Amino acid sequence: MTASPASPSWFVRSDVDGFLGLALDNLIQILLIVGLCRSVLGYPDELLFGTILPATGLSVLFGNLFYAWQAMRLARAEGRDDRTALPYGINTVSLFAYVFLVMLPVKLSALGNGMSEEQAISMSWHAGMVACLGSGLIEAIGAWFVEWLRRWLPRAALLSTLAGIALGYISLGFLLRTYAQPVVGLTVLALILTTYYGKLRLPIPGGLLAIVVGILLAAMTGLLDTDVSVWSRQLDLVGWHPPMFQLDELWQARQQLLPWLGVIIPMGLFNVLGSLQNIDSAEAAGDRYPVRSSLLCNGVGTVVAAVFGSCFPTTIYIGHPAWKAMGARIGYSWLDGIVVAVCCFLGLFGLIGQLIPIEAGMAIVLYIGLVMAAQSFQATPRSHAPAVALGLMPGLAGWGSQLIKSGLRSGGAGQEGQPFGPELLLNLQQTDVWAGGAFALEQGQIITAMLLSAMLVYVIEQRFLAASLMSFVACICSWFGVIHAWRFTQADTVLELGWGVGSQWALGYLLMSLVFLFAWCLSRRSTLQRERQQIKEQS
What we know:
This protein is mostly helical. It has helices at 15-40, 45-78, 92-112, 117-142, 146-152, 155-180, 182-197, 206-221, 228-236, 247-252, 261-284, 291-307, 320-325, 331-345, 349-355, 358-378, 385-410, 422-429, 435-442, 445-460, 464-480, 503-538, and strands at 88-90, 314-316, 486-488, 493-495. 72% of the residues lie in helices and 2% in strands.
């Protein structure tokens, strides 16, 4: 059906394509949540399907309904029928960041301190909820300060930090998995690259085709589990799982807030500024939405997720112009919210995950990582490329640190009789693996990447005083252990907060600050000399 310019419709036929694309994005994110919570975190299905997923579905529903209403309201006010609602769903980068940088370290630390598996899982879940709540509050508050933040933080510092996480925890992880299962992985990857980058037009969305082909190849190669008992267990999860308030659990977890501010604050800022960029992208495509209310809803949606027990923030998605170009309007948004929420409330993602192995959809996630990494170079001045490259490294080092520790644990280290300790560093160092440096970069890696990239941007622009200030901020953060300072537990390394715990890194950054200050003095002196020479020549 076609709506008149003065009468926009809640649903048009072309919304179907948009819905399939957006729903597929959210489907992959939730399957990732299921896979990571089960395999990496070891969460029981009661917690995952009874609390986390219903809360996740509610947050997706909340945001999509708001953005659909927002689009309809503005379309009616403008007498238009071509408004495309802002796309919305689970934040991919935050998903990985909170699993690997907050929830997993908390669980491993708890186990290393002698807690039971059940206690460690509870503590890990609580930390994830608090991190999610903190991110949502920052997003909501940031709606009033976003322009100031955008002026203060260099784009290279923001995007490179995000790209480092995307490359390390998303792209490289799934690339390794692709080559471990090449028949499925490479075929699906080719379809995604051809349709997303090659712009090949097909009768059905490229992402949907990739999923279908991936399922068929998974079935042919034995990756699709056909065990009746496994399917029966997933079928048992189907039922009504309404979201329930988890305010008591959040209150119990309040002490988890401070240790993870080094992850929470930067991720919150990323989500604010990333959502702003996506709003700007929508405006460039012809849909001008109010910035403050759009960002506020984004933050409130994440708060809703945390209050009901989810650990995973939501965000305004990149790609509004693409949805608009394919004809999506308002209906694709609210329909996506309803479908995702219903599947979460009914516990259907156990069956969906059994039908769609992660190998069938991982190329889409790999594509997201590539987009983020490429954007960090494309959306910044060419002269800032070295700063972008530098900002990638802490995220890659953090990912490498996790590989090192996983390898050590698989080799028997971290057990009762063989705990992690300094001798591991010496053994690795002899093979030119500087694990101590990797562990230091892992702690507070997001802040570190932001500060290092900003330093280099200011150096490139010869703003040496600003670079000195960034180094001094890094010095203060190091001194208190917000970045770099770490200690061994039985089977992991964890952040160590306290007075002077990161003194060696603080001293290093202080000396960096002095070097930049010296450069500023020399630069200032040269400038004054040139000005005096010009005055003499004019006189």
